[in-house]
Design a protein that fits this description.
- Chain B: InterPro entries: Diguanylate_Cyclase, GGDEF_dom, Nucleotide_cyclase, Rev_trsase/Diguanyl_cyclase.
- Chain B: It comes from Halomonas koreensis.
- Chain B: One of its GO terms (molecular function) is diguanylate cyclase activity.
- The complex is a heterodimer of chains A (376) and B (446).
- Chain A has 376 residues and is an alpha/beta fold.
- Chain A is 45% helix and 17% strand.
- In chain A, strands 2-1-3-4-5-11 form a six-stranded parallel β-sheet, with helices on both faces. A six-stranded mixed β-sheet of chain A has the order 7-6-8-9-10-12, with helices on both faces.
- In chain A, α2 runs parallel beside α11 and α6 packs across α7.
- Chain A is globular, with a radius of gyration of 21 Å.
- Chain A starts with a helix and ends with a helix.
- Chain B is α+β, with helices and mostly antiparallel strands and 446 residues long.
- Classes of the chains: A alpha/beta (376), B alpha+beta (446).
Amino acid sequence: MRAKLRLLACLLCLGLSGPAPADPAPPIHVRFVNPGFAAEGFWRGVSDTMRAAADQLGIRLEISHADRQWPRMRANARAAIDAAERPDYLILVNEHRQAADLVAAADARGIPTLLLLSTLTPAQEARVGRPGRELPHWLGSLTPDNARAGREMATALFAAARELAPERDRLTLITLAGDAATPASTRRLAGLDQALATAPDIEEVRRLTVDWSREKAYRRIDAWLRTGRRFDAVWAANDPIALGAMAAAEAHGLVPGRDFAVVGMNWSAAALTHLRDGTLVMTHGGHFLAGAWAMVLLHDLHHGIPAIAGSRHLRFPMAGLTAPVPPRLRALLADRDWSRLDFRAFSRHHHPERTGYDFSLPALLAALDEESGHAD
Amino acid sequence: MPTERLRRLGRGIRTALGSRLARRQVRLVLIVALGVGWLLSALQIAVDYRAYRDSLTTQLDQLVTTTLSTAAAAAWQLDGQLARVVCEGLTAHPAIDGCVLRLPGPLSLGETRVEPATTWLPLSDGLFGGRQRRELPLRHEGPKAIGRLALDLNPASAVNDFSRRVLTHLLTGTLRALVLALVLFAVFHVLTLRPITRLSRFLSDADPGAAGVELTRPARHRHDDEIRSLETATLGLMQTVSRQMADLKAAKRDLEHTNRHLEDRIRARTRELEQAMRVMRDRAYTDPLTGLANRRAFFEAAADYLARWRRDGEAFAVVLADLDEFKAINDRLGHDLGDRALQAVADGWRRTCRQDDCIARFGGEEFIGLFRVDDRDQAREVAERLRREVAALRLEDLPWSLTVSLGVALVGPGDEAIDGLVTRADQALYRAKRGGRNRVEDDAAG
């Protein structure tokens, strides 16, 4: 019954989406266990881009959402693994480090599994096994290059701060970290540390952990400012945190972009507005496109492309957006109609002459250009 | 049955408490036990106070030390929520009623205040350091303070806790003293007072004179203590006293017996003597042949008659009688018949004699009598009756009739002595003899 409903939902999606499937072959069947919400936030973006790519690449996609409750995510994953109808591929997330035994269970069922956005920690891998070795059906992982993102954010932030106060030779930084445990967060902070190591004029006065919360970020910055101290730069782990910090500073009469510089992450619509206003230096991101990249990868694998012949742990780059943002991209991020991107442009199956993948911002803009041209 | 036993127990307790010695002992033990108990309680309280204060200080120090790093993290992270949690954790301790986590400047990151505890112990303000505020600098990887943790310490609940302990100490000390006094009293009562009471009751009730003095045996476990020795000694003494009293009593009885015997014998001898004297007197005043009064008796009685005549005027007559022809009887018929004749006359006259009359043998065949009369005729009449009685006598072996001649003398105003009267009676008799015998003559003719 449930399977029928899902199928119906998929058919509806197919009906609503623009381009028809290119391949006449029977569709590839993929299940994605999404740990987040279906209707909002970062994880909605992941699901949406994944579905848009799946539609273009002839993939039958089933997504379950856990609303950021990891026990529910585990239950959903269990259901996906144990379902009578075995999918061709399974996509899991190591949210809260809960995926190790799920990977092993899927391997035992003989389901090829890809870990998306966060992979098993080295300790977990040492326990349950390595992809293609102890766990032959575990394909590997596809994760964003968080360290590079953190470093790029820091570099852009420091440059902007120096521009705001060229006369001073020492600048203060407040870091607003998401959390202190997840690999994505620690990798980004590692990137920040790399940048700090090469910037002796920047003094990090605080590294505050705000649990990815705009509200908490607001309160911490408010508390800091009420002690009578100031800062020149705020490195925020995501856009909501950056917006919370900016609101708190504005409440104390400080103007972002004039009195201090801020960077964020996520490519959120609000962040794009602030980019245009000049109050935000950069919003890094694009990692929600991981959903689409995963579809490209599985599509190619299915068609015999040795996509994981080298490293089993693939990284894709994220992109920092600064002003001015190309209007096409801003329009896309505003309406979030991902079907306007041509995901076949990234497929090695469709471009056999390539030996690797290019998920960079220029490539993205190129894929959008073509589509926009059609749409315009 | 149980009520009876209870009543007996109650009576026993009343008796026991009535003992002056017991009261004195209970008072003394109570004073000493209470004094010592309270002194020990005070020491205990002092020691407790130090230990409690140190433990409270250590506890607070530990709590603060363990919390300080979290508080510092909250201050470093500017985490108000964590600061509040830290403060809530601190104020959960009963000795902390206020907590503020301050950042530099006027800002308080987190603050918790609870209703301050109050103490019911008066004058306890200084105990356990009193109310105080403790300020602790918060540091993060360096000497510079990034904030302060201010704690309001309020030892009221510790004071209350301690007060309860003090009260318990005092109460148990007092109770211990009471129980000790009671137990000592009971032991003293059972081991000493009761035996002494028993002994003194035995002594006051004992009758040393009664045979077989015996004291009931004491309980078996008490066979060697001092009171038992006292009892034994007392009993021995009593028995000795009893024995000696018995001896004394026997001696007294013997003496009494002896005395009584002596009196009886004296009485008997006296009686015998009186008897003998009476016999002797009777013999002195009686004629042995006739049993009549003799001459001496006559004269003594005559003195009485004469005295009464002179005092009261009571008249009397002396009658002298002489048997006729008596010499002939003796000579012819033998003295034996003569004696018999005399006896017969005497018997006859004794029979008819009135109480106030007195007839005596005057000697030989002569008789003399004293008779109360009113006049001479009456006197003659008396003499006549005597003559007739003799004339009427019939004597065996006597061939003739016995007669008697009588002379009468009536007392007169000139009579000073009896001799005159006797003489006049003798003269009258002489006339009667001469007149023919067997007749009566008086002194009127003379």
